[in-house]
Structures are given as structure tokens and as C-alpha cells.
Amino acid sequence: MSNKFKRDELINQGLYINGKWQDAQQHFAVTNPADGNTIVEVASADKTQVESAIEAAEHAFKSWRKQTCEQRAEKLRAWFDLVMQHQQELAEIMTLEQGKPEQEAAGEIAYGASFIEWFAEEAKRIRGDILPNIKDNQQSRVIKQPVGVVAIITPWNFPTAMITRKVAPALAAGCTVVIKPPSLTPLSALALAVLAEKAGIPAGVINIVPTQDSSMFSETVCAHKAVRKLSFTGSTAVGSKLMKLCSDQIIKVSLELGGNAPFIVFDDADLDIAVEQLIACKFRNAGQTCISANRVLVQQSVEKAFVHKLKNAMQKLVVGKGQNKDSDLGPLINQDAVDKASDLVDDAISNGARFELEGGVDKQLGALFYQPQLLTSVTPAMSISKTEIFAPVVAVQTFDTEDEGIDLANDTEFGLAAYFCASATDRIHRVSEALEAGLVGINSGAISHALHPFGGFKQSGIGREGSHYGIDEYLEIKTLVQGAL
């Protein structure tokens, strides 16, 4: 494993099926959001190729599941080492196709790799149980076995981490996978396949089939009898459709869906900490994260002071190309993202919101570059309060009492993440238990880590990723009852 790939050697344009790179009849362009230029043309899988990938995974499952936990762990550890050895090259690829600053991209590579390392270790900790005897000559025990072939669909905003967070526990459990990366950012996924192959992960264990025909992929994997699980990260609307498709075959699902995260600032909060943590939470990936603060709820008595400090901090953020070392925010992913953010802001302003920091599209930098915006006098009835903004836009609402703040925070069908800043110990306990979200940040805007369970309440999804809970999503529980002892 001493040979090191150059960046361009990691950029692949084919499908990765059964350990081999394949072409396809159709192709699609992968573009750089910073300038709109085409990076490469990537093969777009058809139905036959997706079925071939499933069959390869089904065949590989028979032998992969029989490897010992230590053998699987060794392969995963080798993959982790190679990813970290190529951290800079992978970060450069991510910046090319996704736009985030290279330093932030390098951070995602390390974050994504941490799941490979974590689940390499968890492979050795899959435990069953010996149950109490209910008869003198009988013993009952519980074992855990891999689900089987797993279909995986990932989003564009974290093109490496959203793959490793699913693939690593699947492989650690003994499953094999068929992955459809997003057509906007497939290169990061394909680069991971190059390194997985070099790490010695057998042919067919990982299959990657980029395609522009998302419906075809979903319908094909959900109808195939070999596929026993689907893991998806994306919108609630698409997740609902996938869940319905999975119902015919009773396929297990893990769904990490939409969010509408509140960030509450109480009157006893340290406002400097609150601003610092909101900046960290809100502006990661230019606001394009599912756990980004979407509704900033500030207790009335501290709104003026908080907004003043926040505005000063936001004015220091630098928007620019991801290759620039001083850039804090890169471009948004595409024109649809820019239009959505602009429309939400325009609607809010027309309904009484006010600009504290106007920002918006920066045409001098390029069509997809969006300067941070700060709005106040926002109300719960505005569209910007009900919709994931997915842009560097802060929309501030106010509230009077603690109960009102909690009620506002929970007034959404989503429950992925929530944040609040406070000092009083009793308030921290009350609010943290009252918030309806799978992840809660308390005086902290950075809450995602390999050892933390990641997932949501309500329409934000089903299941958990990461942590020791994450591997259970890829295991079946089997009860063995043995008599005549």
C-alpha cells in the first residue's frame, strides 16, 4: 500500500461493478459549481447494469459474510489508512465537483474516514446473548447475522461522508452494497472505490453505479429479491416514495430525511458562545447541511445584542472559490439552490422581514456564489420558517418565555437536529428533554461524530447512523432454541 495515487488517478468515469470498471451507453457531465465548467463525463448506468451490480453483490455476500470479524476489520482498517493517506487528493476532487473550500473538504474526508475506522472496530463487537434456561434440557441463545445486499442512495452535500457512514457499518456487519451516488457529485464515491479495491476489499462487496435515472435505480433495487435493505439520505418527499417502493418486498429501510433545525438563544446564554456556535453550525458547507440551523429563535430581551454580535461575525465570512485558502464559503451547488434561497428571502421581505445584512447573489464572483444574509422580524408563518433554506441565510424570530421558545422549536413536522444556548443547569435539563429532535446541541453547534447516533424524530427519518447503534441497522437478530441437551 505504499504506492500513492495522484489526484487525477483517483478521478474515474466508469461504473464499478464486481471489481471491474465498466462503461455505459449514456453519460452525463459533472460540472464545477464555481465556474460551470465540465470536469468529466461519467457513465450513467442502465437497468441491466444495476441488476448486474445487485447480482455481483449477492454472489460476493456468500463469501464476505463468512469472513471473520477480524478479517473484515483488517480490510476496513486498510481502507481507512488509504483514505487518510489521500486526504488532500480526495479533498481537491470534492472541491472540484461540490464547491466547498478545500480545507473544509479535507475535514469531511477525515470525518468520513472516521466512520470506516469506527466500524472496523465495531465489527469485532457484534454480540449475541445466552438466555436463561426455561427447561433443564434446553438452551436458548441469540445471534446476529448480516441482512444481506444493501442498496444505498446518497446526497451531494457530503459526497464522501454520507457514503462511508452507510458502507462502513454494512461491510463490518458482513453485508455487501450497491451504491447510487448523486449525479452532481459522483467522483468522490468513485475515488473511494479505487482505494477500497487497493485495500483488498473483494470484488462485488462494493459496487458503485452512478446514473441520471434515479427512478430506474430505486425501482430496480426495491423490486429485486436479493436486496434486503435500503439506506437513503435525502428529502422527506423522496424518502416517503422509497419507503412505499420497499413495502412490496418488505425491505428494511434506514432513512435520514429533511430537517428544520431550531437554534434557540435564551436570555441567560453567553451571547459570544451563541454567535460562535451558530456560525459553526449555520455556515458549514455554505448552509447546505441537513442539520444546519434553519430557524434562529432569540429571546426578546437579548435580540438586539445578539443580532449586533452576529452581524459583525457574519461580515467577516469570506465567500470565494474553494481553492482559495481564505475562503470560508464556496458556491452553492447549482442554480436551483440559488433560486430557492432567493425566493425564500424575497417572500420573507415582502411579508415584513427586514435585512440586517443584505448579501445575496454575488455576480462578480459568479452566478452560484451567495453572500451571507441576516434577516430579522421573521415570523413562523413565513415560508422561510417552514422550509430548509440550504443557503447562508440566517432568519431570526423572537419569543418571550421559555415555554414559547420550546413550542416554536417543536412546531414542525421535522425533528432531526435542534440547538440551544443557555447557562442555567435546570433550564438545560428541561429544554434538552423537551426538544423533539434526534440530536440536540447544547451550547454547541458541532454535534456530528462517528460515535454519536445520527438520526431524527417524526418526518426526519427512521433508524440511526454512526455509534455502536449504527451497525444494528445492518443485522438481523436470530433466536436459537436447542433441546435434548
UniProtKB/TrEMBL annotation:
<dbReference type="InterPro" id="IPR016163">
    <property type="entry name" value="Ald_DH_C"/>
</dbReference>
<feature type="active site">
    <location>
        <position position="256"/>
    </location>
</feature>
<dbReference type="InterPro" id="IPR050740">
    <property type="entry name" value="Aldehyde_DH_Superfamily"/>
</dbReference>
<keyword id="KW-0560">Oxidoreductase</keyword>
<dbReference type="Pfam" id="PF00171">
    <property type="entry name" value="Aldedh"/>
</dbReference>
<dbReference type="InterPro" id="IPR029510">
    <property type="entry name" value="Ald_DH_CS_GLU"/>
</dbReference>
<dbReference type="InterPro" id="IPR016162">
    <property type="entry name" value="Ald_DH_N"/>
</dbReference>
<dbReference type="InterPro" id="IPR015590">
    <property type="entry name" value="Aldehyde_DH_dom"/>
</dbReference>
<dbReference type="InterPro" id="IPR016161">
    <property type="entry name" value="Ald_DH/histidinol_DH"/>
</dbReference>
<dbReference type="GO" id="GO:0004777">
    <property type="term" value="F:succinate-semialdehyde dehydrogenase (NAD+) activity"/>
</dbReference>
<protein>
    <submittedName>
        <fullName>Succinate-semialdehyde dehydrogenase (NADP(+))</fullName>
        <ecNumber>1.2.1.16</ecNumber>
    </submittedName>
</protein>
<dbReference type="GO" id="GO:0009450">
    <property type="term" value="P:gamma-aminobutyric acid catabolic process"/>
</dbReference>
<comment type="similarity">
    <text>Belongs to the aldehyde dehydrogenase family.</text>
</comment>
<feature type="domain" description="Aldehyde dehydrogenase">
    <location>
        <begin position="21"/>
        <end position="479"/>
    </location>
</feature>
